[in-house]
Amino acid sequence: MPSHNSSGDIDVFSGEMSDVDIQIITSGGLRIPAHSAILAAASTVLENILVRPGKRRSSERTIRILGVPCDAVSVFIRFLYSFKCTEEQMKRHGIHLLALSHVYLVPQLKQRCTKGLAERLTIENAVDMLQLARLCDAPNLYLKTMKFLSSNFKKVEETEGWKFLQHHDPWLELEILQFMDEAELRKKRTRRHKRELSLYLQLSEAMDCLEHICTEGCTSVGPLDKEPSIKRQPCSKFDTCQGLQLLIRHFATCKRRTNGGCLRCKRMWQILRLHASICDQPNDCQVPLCRQLKLKVQQKGDDELWKLLVRKVVSARAMSSLSLPKRKREEEPKMDLSHPQVMNFRLAA
Ligand SMILES: [Zn+2]
Ligand SMILES: [Zn+2]
Ligand SMILES: [Zn+2]
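Above are the sequence and the zinc ion SMILES. Below is the predicted complex in structure-token form.
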């Protein structure tokens, strides 16, 4: 507990009485003896005050720190000596300490207060805290309070602080509402981004499955040179793989095809085209039409939208390959693609 007795403070600062060369005077009339060298070292503002030639009538030098409770000043001065303050002191005087740290430029204390006050945000004090953070130029505290306010807005709206703010600081009210609006937008953007990312991840997985079906074969579709009689187990990406196998089976037997406007066939064409766009070994590739589609792109080029899609799938694939073990490619069987048709798939009965 800070003492109102000045000699008590001297003990705390562990200074020699004889070295004391300055008195801090507080609003409550408390005099706190201190060492100017220590004050000057901790605060450039105090340093400037100390070197300023004062109109000293007596030999006693004083600095007035007014407008905050004596106890808070006492804790502040103590901090300049030890760079420490307790949780209890933070709880009782955090707001005043932040103001003091701002006025007297003590970054260590400001940091401590920013953290301490952010931990003590409540529905009741949030509006005041926001005003204080703005006043004291504490951007971290400001941002944390804004976030707190927007996620508890329904309750904050009911407080006296909010009502006061509406009447006296409409600009800050506007700032809060704008922040909440943007936060909502940010959330929407993140959701959209996540949805897109999952689409690219799905496509990237479909690319993995296509290669796996065309080289190893899966439960119901495999390459021509592999016996379908071997009962294959579902692979690790079976959800995607099964869908793709169904699509391939459809593609191989559909009478309408793309010209006939079949959407499923169109989708299969897109998957084959996407594979051709990202495949880096078209000459050894087992995926039907890979080389042909690649050649076609080399001759005709791709449109920008397609290129963007390809880039996104490639990066999604790179990301997922960081977390998944690479499929073994060593024992890939070679398949002659001299007469490549989509019928290169062998469909299990
Ligand atoms: Zn599979
Ligand atoms: Zn079809
Ligand atoms: Zn390929």
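The chain has 15 helices and five strands.
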